[in-house]
Amino acid sequence: MDIGIADEANNDVTEEEPRLYYANVEQFVTQMLAQQYRRPVDLAGRGNTFTWCSKWWLHAEAVSRLTALWRAWEASRLDPTTGMIVWWRDHADATMRILFAQDGPFAGCTPREHKPTGIPLPLTPPPAGLFDLD
């Protein structure tokens, strides 16, 4: 849905970006996502239910995935036909399946305690020039 506004100086119509519904990813997670996703989260973290960390914002992968999910939601909400079903199917379900997984980015954490167990992936530097553009 584009919003056109007239530019008084030259009478051209310019496109204005739609306003965000949520100002940032924290608002999106707190006000929308956490309210919509109601799951049997084990507060003791015994690993037999969905894994979640209440300090999700300390997990770089989770922040990146949730930010992408928020941005996809902001775009999808503007499509009055299939926008939201596509968002749920293609974005939310896929993202949350990874975040909730026992071996996902919250592994080791519980809703009450931030205790991540993962480490960054080990890397060996590539040979010099391998990725240089010709």
Give a verbal description of the structure.
The model is unreliable at 1-7 (pLDDT under 50). The chain contains three helices and two strands; from the N terminus they run ββααα. The protein is mainly α and 134 residues long. Helix 2 packs antiparallel against helix 3. Strands 1-2 form a two-stranded antiparallel ribbon. The radius of gyration is 20 Å and the shape is flat. The termini are far apart.
Q: Bin the strand percentage.
A: 5-15%
Radius of gyration: 20 Å
Figure out the total of helices. Answer: 3
- Please give the number of β-strands: 2
How would you concisely characterize the structure shown here?
With 134 residues, the chain is mainly alpha-helical. Helix content is 35%, strand content 6%. It has helices at 25-36, 60-76, 83-100, and strands at 3-6, 13-16.
Topology:
Elements: E1 3-6, E2 13-16, H1 25-36, H2 60-76, H3 83-100
Antiparallel strand pairs: 1-2
Please describe the structure with a list of short key phrases separated by commas or semicolons.
two-stranded antiparallel sheet, disordered N terminus, single chain, mainly alpha
